[in-house]
Amino acid sequence: MEDEDSSSAEAESLVERTLGTLASLNPLRVPAGSPEPEPDRPSDVPASEPPAPVTIDDLYRTHRMGMVRLAILLVDDQASAEDVVQEAFAGLFRNWGGLRDTQAAIGYLRTAVVNGSRSMLRRRRTARAYVPPHAGTARSAESLAILSTEHQAVVSALADLAPRQREVLVLRYYGGLSEAEIAEATGLSKGTVKSTASRAVAKLGDLVRDRS
């Protein structure tokens, strides 16, 4: 019994360390309270002039890869992730006039990626013909190259969580979102986000322990 408790504690410790490491995969992750990076300023524009309004092209250039990596962690397939993100940006273009600012646009993209990933997974289950991608190509090498073998095992185990649990953990640890932001992106209540995250970490620990 003592050995089992020790094994569970070690597995959950590994999970916590790995989930923290997910933040390093996100090139757009900035510390809480830091100002949002401004788009590159042309060299011929004086520094005293206010920056030009952010465009869809600016968001595509600066946020596309981060959104693709987010989708990869949700659907476990880079080609599908790219399709999800492309559709999210197409939706952003269609709704651009109704968005109040840059943060609202980024929030729209996150929600669209989560919903698009859910739809992708539903289509796979319905078709029943989906063959999981080979482990070597399921996620881009760039995304996981910096992780240790143990950490890669934890990230791979994300695929075995319930979709809602995976969404919450990915948005929390990779996206660095608050409970309120996760609730907005997923359509869940803040209380459900909190309880789902707790259960998901415990479940991930069980999966890692069982595979070790």
From TrEMBL:
<dbReference type="Pfam" id="PF04542">
    <property type="entry name" value="Sigma70_r2"/>
</dbReference>
<dbReference type="GO" id="GO:0003677">
    <property type="term" value="F:DNA binding"/>
</dbReference>
<dbReference type="InterPro" id="IPR013249">
    <property type="entry name" value="RNA_pol_sigma70_r4_t2"/>
</dbReference>
<dbReference type="InterPro" id="IPR000943">
    <property type="entry name" value="RNA_pol_sigma70"/>
</dbReference>
<dbReference type="InterPro" id="IPR036388">
    <property type="entry name" value="WH-like_DNA-bd_sf"/>
</dbReference>
<feature type="domain" description="HTH luxR-type">
    <location>
        <begin position="158"/>
        <end position="211"/>
    </location>
</feature>
<keyword id="KW-0238">DNA-binding</keyword>
<dbReference type="InterPro" id="IPR007627">
    <property type="entry name" value="RNA_pol_sigma70_r2"/>
</dbReference>
<comment type="similarity">
    <text>Belongs to the sigma-70 factor family. ECF subfamily.</text>
</comment>
<dbReference type="InterPro" id="IPR013324">
    <property type="entry name" value="RNA_pol_sigma_r3/r4-like"/>
</dbReference>
<dbReference type="InterPro" id="IPR013325">
    <property type="entry name" value="RNA_pol_sigma_r2"/>
</dbReference>
<dbReference type="InterPro" id="IPR014284">
    <property type="entry name" value="RNA_pol_sigma-70_dom"/>
</dbReference>
<feature type="region of interest" description="Disordered">
    <location>
        <begin position="19"/>
        <end position="54"/>
    </location>
</feature>
<dbReference type="GO" id="GO:0006352">
    <property type="term" value="P:DNA-templated transcription initiation"/>
</dbReference>
<dbReference type="InterPro" id="IPR039425">
    <property type="entry name" value="RNA_pol_sigma-70-like"/>
</dbReference>
<dbReference type="InterPro" id="IPR014325">
    <property type="entry name" value="RNA_pol_sigma-E_actinobac"/>
</dbReference>
<dbReference type="InterPro" id="IPR000792">
    <property type="entry name" value="Tscrpt_reg_LuxR_C"/>
</dbReference>
<dbReference type="GO" id="GO:0016987">
    <property type="term" value="F:sigma factor activity"/>
</dbReference>
<dbReference type="Pfam" id="PF08281">
    <property type="entry name" value="Sigma70_r4_2"/>
</dbReference>
<protein>
    <submittedName>
        <fullName>SigE family RNA polymerase sigma factor</fullName>
    </submittedName>
</protein>
<keyword id="KW-0805">Transcription regulation</keyword>
<keyword id="KW-0804">Transcription</keyword>
<keyword id="KW-0731">Sigma factor</keyword>
